[in-house]
């Protein structure tokens, strides 16, 4: 596995964990963050490279900070 992919996989795990903690489906997270559900799925599979703008949208909906999303990733 390429090292960069490991970064995206750890980010994905963190986003999934926070989403589930907030009891949100991928569809709900997508609607609230104004993103496509399939893009959320790709992020959660570690197959997408989300921009800072996208991470900011996700962090806002998940009621956390971008720094918290990236901590330990």
Automatic annotation (TrEMBL):
The keyword Membrane does not apply. PROSITE patterns: HTH_CROC1 (PS50943). Residues 15-69 form the HTH cro/C1-type domain. One of its GO terms (cellular component) is cytosol. Transmembrane segments: none annotated. GO terms for molecular function: DNA binding; DNA-binding transcription factor activity. The keyword DNA-binding applies. It comes from the Bacteria. InterPro entries: Cro/C1-type_HTH, Lambda_DNA-bd_dom_sf, TransReg_Diox_bact_type. Keywords: DNA-binding. Pfam families: HTH_3. This is HTH cro/C1-type domain-containing protein. The lineage of its organism: Bacteria, Candidatus Roizmaniibacteriota.
